[in-house]
Amino acid sequence: MKKLFFLTVALLFSFVLSIESCGPVVVTSRIGTPPPHWFYPNRAEIVRYVYFPEFEIYYDFSSRNYIYLNNGIWVSANILPPRYSHINLRRSHHIRINNYFGDDINNYHNNNRSNLNRRRSVNRRN
Q: pLDDT tens digit string along 114-125?
């Protein structure tokens, strides 16, 4: 009986470990709602915002809204307006904001603008 119990526990433990390493795991406050089709993390992480520096667009995972700048005002919407219809977010450069979970994206953007627009430098040999 003990052998069967330990075998069952070992199988369950290995099953849980194998599931965690197989695919994306995004921790969010909305259970059952998948992340957008363009976001596919390769590890478990806690992210509230993703920033697209080329277009100055944020995506908020907790409210499932895009936040973009419109005439100097940050607007939150479920879908992007038609002026962004040509954008392929899956192929666009994005930055995962791992260190901010607040609601005032304007304050965060103003304080971190120089760091957000900077891409990682690439060392090229001549």
A: 665 555 444 444
